[in-house]
Write a structure and sequence with these properties.
Strands 1, 2, 3 and 4 form a 4-stranded antiparallel sheet that branches. The longest helix has 16 residues. The protein is globular, with a radius of gyration of 11 Å. Strand 1 and strand 2 form a beta hairpin. With 62 residues, it is an alpha+beta fold.
């Protein structure tokens, strides 16, 4: 597993809610890392699991 860091914007239902979300996770792939980070954002900010949260993969670094 590899450690991935995210430092970038977050959109919810297409609306920009923050420009500087910072988080890290360990995952087997970039896609799984984005999924983990999306979950972290939802939990930390009290969003429902059904909320459509989008992270931009270009801000993800290994």
């Amino acid at each position: 597993m590899q450690t991935y860091n995210y430092n970038g914007p977050v959109w919810i239902f297409g609306n920009l809610v923050t420009t500087n979300f910072r988080a890290s996770t360990r995952a087997v792939s970039k896609q799984k890392a984005l999924s983990n980070l999306t979950y972290q954002f939802k939990v930390q900010n009290g969003y429902m699991p059904s909320a459509k949260v989008t992270l931009d993969a270009k801000y993800l670094s290994a």
